[in-house]
C-alpha cells in the first residue's frame, strides 16, 4: 500500500442532476492502483478538511477515475465550482474495496441516491450477472442508469414517488430479486435506514452482504481516528474507522444506530 | 545549508518540526508518503493505561479556518504501544515522543513507569485533552492539579518530561510555571480550544460529544500569543503548536519563543505539510544568512 497525493487535471465535468456532478480526472498513478469501492480524498479550496468521495469508475487504460458527488454543503460546493481543465487535489486511492467474486457469480448491487455511483464499477465487473437496484427520490434525481445499461446489468430503477421506474424503495425491489433467484453477494451504499433494510434482507436470504459506509472524515488514511463507526465482533462492540478499515464493511459487523 | 538541529530537554532533534499527537497516529500511515526520518520527531497518538473506545461519531466538524474534533483518546493502551508500535518506531531515525494521557494521577504515573524501561526518547504528559470526562483537561486547568500530576510522573520516570498545556484556562503562564516547578523539562502548547458547532436543520450539535477541540489556522494567533507569554515566564524550553500550516507560521512561532514546533491539523489538508515546513525553514535560514534555526527562538522584538 502506498498513497498518492497530487494535483490532477479535471478533464470532464458534467452536471448529472440538480446539485450532482460527475468529474473525470486524469490521474494514472491513482487509476493504476484503484479498486472498486475505494475513495479519493478531495481538497475543497478554502477549507481545511478534505471531502471523501467514492470512485464511480476506474479506467486504467485511459489513466482516469470518475467521481460523482452531490453538493451537501460549502465544501462540496467549492469542489463543484472547479472547471474543466482545473487541477483537483486528491489523495488516493484510499480505503478497502468491495470483495470481487468471479465475474460469473451473481451479484446484486443496491444504491440509494448518492450511494448509487460507487456501484457502477462493481456492477461492470459482473456484467450481465449483476442486478443493479437503484433508488432515487424522484425522476429528476435519477442518475447513471445508462452506465448500468452499458455494463449489461439488469436494472431495477425505483423512485420514492413513482415518477420513473417502479414506485417504492430499493428494499422492495431487492426482496423481489432475492425471491426470484439466488445471489452470491449483495453490495450496497446509501442512507442508513436503506442499508439497514438491505442488511436485514441479506440476512433473511442468507446472502453475503457488504456495505459502503460514510462518516465525517479527517486525515482519510487512518491516523486521526475521527471517522468512527460502530462495529461488533464476537459480541464485542468497538469503533472501527471508515477511512482505513472501510469504507466497505461486511454487513455482519456493522451496527446501525437509530 | 543551515543547522536545523535543536535540543529540547537534552534530546537532540535533527530539525524542529514534529507532527502533533493525535494527528499522525504512530506514523505508519504517513510513512506511505515519505520516510519518517525526515521529521525532527513524532508525538504519537495519546495513550491511556488501558485501551479506551473513544467517543461516538461524528467526531469532527469543519469550522472557519479550522476544525473541531472529539475523538476522546481512542487508543489500545500503553502496553499495546510498547509491544506493537514502539519497536517499529524506534527504527525510524527520528525522536519518538510518547504522549501520556491518564485519567488519574496514578494512571499517569503508571503509564510513565511502564515507558521508563523502554527506549522511547521523551514523554509528553497530556494534561489538556478537552474530550474526555475525567483526567485530561481536568488536570490542566488548575495549577495545583497540574503540579501534582507533573510531580508524580516526574517521580515515575527519568525520561525527559514535556507537559502539554491547555489553552482553556485563565492564565496559561501560571500553569506553565506550576509544572516547571514540579519538575517538567519542557512544555508544549497549545492543545485545542474548546468549541462547538450546531446544525441549523436538526438543531443538534454536529459533534456527538456536543463540544470538541478547535485546531487549525483559526487558533494560530492565540497559540503565538500564549507561547510568547509562557516563553517569557519559564526557563524550560517551549514547544509551540496550534494552527501552524506553513514555514512562515513555524518561523513566527519560533520568534515568539518556541524551541520547536508541532504540526497538527495542517497534515489533514496536506500530508506533506511537515516536510514542506522543514524545507521552507531551511531555505529561509539560508536566504537570510541565519546559521542555526535555534537563533530564531524568542527573537521577536516586542514593542
Which spans of chain B have pLDDT < 50 for at least 5 consecutive residues?
none
Q: How many beta-strand segments of chain B?
A: 14
Which ranges of chain A are low-confidence, i.e. pLDDT below 50, for 5 or more consecutive residues? none
**Considering the protein shown, what is the CATH homologous superfamily of the largest domain in chain A?**
Nucleotide-binding domain of ferredoxin-NADP reductase (FNR) module
Most residues in contact, chain pair and counts: A-B, 31 and 36 residues
Helix content of chain A: 10-25%
Give the helix/strand class of chain A.
alpha/beta
Number of helices of chain B: 9
Please give the radius of gyration of chain B in angstroms.
18 Å
Shape of chain A from CA axes? globular
CATH architecture of chain B: Alpha-Beta Barrel
- CATH architecture annotation of the largest domain in chain A: 3-Layer(aba) Sandwich
Identify the overall geometry of chain B.
globular
* Major sheet size, sense and barrel closure of chain A: 7 strands, mixed
Helix content of chain B: 25-40%
* Amount of beta strand of chain B: 15-25%
Mean pLDDT of chain A: 96
Strand arrangement across the biggest beta sheet of chain B: 3-14-13-10-9-8-7-4
3D structure, described in words:
- With 258 residues, chain A is α/β, with parallel strands linked by helices.
- Chain A folds into 2 domains: 4-94, Translation factors (Elongation Factor Tu (Ef-tu), domain 3, Beta Barrel); 98-212, 3-Layer(aba) Sandwich (Rossmann fold), CATH 3.40.50.
- In chain A, the strands form 3 sheets. Chain A has a 7-stranded mixed beta sheet with strand order 10-9-8-7-11-12-15, sandwiched between helices. Chain A has a 6-stranded antiparallel beta barrel with strand order 1-2-5-4-3-6. A two-stranded antiparallel ribbon of chain A has the order 13-14.
- Chain A is built from 6 helices and 15 strands.
- Chain B is of the alpha/beta class.
- Helices cover 31% and strands 18% of the residues of chain B.
- Chain B is built from 9 helices and 14 strands.
- Chain B has helices at residues 78-89, 105-116, 137-140, 143-156, 172-181, 220-231, 247-256, 266-269, 273-287, and strands at 6-8, 11-13, 17-19, 41-43, 60-63, 66-69, 95-100, 122-126, 161-164, 186-189, 193-195, 212-215, 238-241, 260-263.
- In chain B, the strands form 3 sheets. An 8-stranded parallel beta sheet of chain B has the order 3-14-13-10-9-8-7-4.
- In chain B, a hairpin with a 2-residue loop joins strand 1 (6-8) and strand 2.
- In chain B, helix 2 (105-116) runs parallel beside helix 4, helix 4 runs parallel beside helix 5 (172-181) and helix 7 (247-256) packs across helix 9 (273-287).
- The model of chain B has no long low-confidence stretch (mean pLDDT 95).
Amino acid at each position: 500500500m502506498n498513497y498518492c497525493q497530487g494535483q490532477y487535471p479535471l478533464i470532464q465535468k458534467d452536471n448529472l442532476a440538480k446539485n450532482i456532478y460527475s468529474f473525470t480526472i486524469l490521474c494514472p498513478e491513482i487509476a493504476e492502483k484503484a479498486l472498486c469501492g475505494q475513495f479519493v480524498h478531495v481538497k475543497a479550496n478554502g477549507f481545511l478538511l478534505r471531502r471523501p468521495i467514492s470512485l464511480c469508475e476506474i479506467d486504467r487504460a485511459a489513466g482516469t477515475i470518475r467521481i460523482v458527488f452531490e453538493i451537501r454543503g460549502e465544501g462540496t460546493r467549492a469542489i463543484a465550482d472547479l472547471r474543466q481543465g482545473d487541477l483537483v487535489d486528491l489523495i488516493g486511492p484510499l480505503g478497502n474495496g468491495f470483495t470481487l467474486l468471479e465475474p460469473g457469480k451473481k451479484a446484486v448491487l443496491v444504491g440509494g441516491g448518492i450511494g448509487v455511483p460507487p456501484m457502477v464499477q462493481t456492477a461492470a465487473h459482473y456484467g450481465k450477472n449483476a442486478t443493479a437496484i437503484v433508488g432515487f427520490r424522484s425522476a429528476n434525481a435519477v442518475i447513471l442508469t445508462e452506465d448500468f445499461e452499458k455494463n449489461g446489468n439488469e436494472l431495477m430503477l425505483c423512485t420514492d414517488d413513482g415518477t420513473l421506474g417502479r414506485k417504492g424503495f430499493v428494499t422492495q425491489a431487492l426482496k423481489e430479486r432475492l425471491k426470484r433467484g439466488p445471489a452470491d453477494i449483495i453490495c450496497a451504499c446509501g442512507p442508513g435506514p436503506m442499508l439497514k433494510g438491505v442488511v436485514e434482507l441479506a440476512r433473511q436470504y442468507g446472502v453475503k452482504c457488504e456495505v459502503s459506509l460514510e462518516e465525517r472524515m479527517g486525515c482519510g488514511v487512518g491516523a486521526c481516528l475521527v471517522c468512527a463507526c460502530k462495529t461488533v465482533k464476537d459480541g464485542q462492540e468497538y469503533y472501527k474507522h471508515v477511512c482505513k478499515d472501510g469504507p466497505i464493511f461486511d454487513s455482519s459487523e456493522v451496527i446501525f444506530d437509530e | 545549508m543551515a543547522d536545523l538541529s535543536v535540543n529540547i530537554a537534552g534530546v537532540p532533534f535533527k530539525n524542529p518540526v514534529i507532527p502533533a499527537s493525535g494527528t499522525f497516529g504512530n506514523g505508519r500511515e504517513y510513512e506511505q508518503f515519505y520516510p519518517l526520518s525526515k521529521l525532527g520527531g513524532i508525538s504519537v497518538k495519546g495513550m491511556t493505561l488501558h485501551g479506551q473506545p473513544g467517543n461516538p461519531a461524528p467526531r469532527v466538524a469543519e469550522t472557519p479556518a479550522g476544525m473541531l474534533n472529539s475523538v476522546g483518546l481512542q487508543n489500545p493502551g500503553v502496553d499495546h504501544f510498547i509491544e506493537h508500535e514502539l519497536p517499529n518506531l524506534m527504527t525510524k531515525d527520528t525522536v519518538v515522543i510518547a504522549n501520556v494521557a491518564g485519567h488519574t494521577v496514578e494512571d499517569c504515573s503508571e503509564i510513565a513507569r511502564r515507558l521508563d524501561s523502554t527506549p522511547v526518547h521523551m514523554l509528553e504528559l497530556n494534561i489538556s485533552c478537552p474530550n474526555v470526562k475525567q483526567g485530561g483537561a481536568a488536570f490542566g486547568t488548575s495549577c495545583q492539579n497540574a503540579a501534582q500530576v507533573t510531580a508524580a510522573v516526574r517521580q515515575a520516570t527519568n525520561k525527559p518530561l514535556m507537559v502539554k498545556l491547555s489553552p482553556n484556562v485563565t492564565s496559561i503562564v501560571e500553569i506553565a510555571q506550576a509544572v516547571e516547578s514540579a519538575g517538567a523539562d519542557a512544555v508544549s502548547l497549545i492543545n485545542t480550544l474548546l468549541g462547538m458547532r450546531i446544525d441549523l436543520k436538526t438543531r443538534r450539535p454536529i459533534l456527538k460529544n456536543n463540544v470538541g477541540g478547535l485546531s487549525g489556522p483559526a487558533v494560530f494567533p492565540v497559540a503565538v500569543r500564549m507561547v510568547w507569554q509562557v516563553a517569557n515566564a519559564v526557563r524550560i524550553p517551549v514547544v509551540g503548536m496550534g494552527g501552524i500550516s506553513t514555514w512562515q507560521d513555524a518561523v513566527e512561532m519560533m520568534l515568539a519563543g518556541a524551541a520547536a514546533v508541532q504540526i497538527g491539523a495542517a497534515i489533514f489538508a496536506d500530508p506533506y505539510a511537515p516536510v514542506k515546513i522543514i524545507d521552507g525553514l531551511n531555505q529561509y535560514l539560508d536566504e537570510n544568512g541565519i546559521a542555526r534555526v535555534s537563533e530564531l527562538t524568542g527573537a521577536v522584538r516586542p514593542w
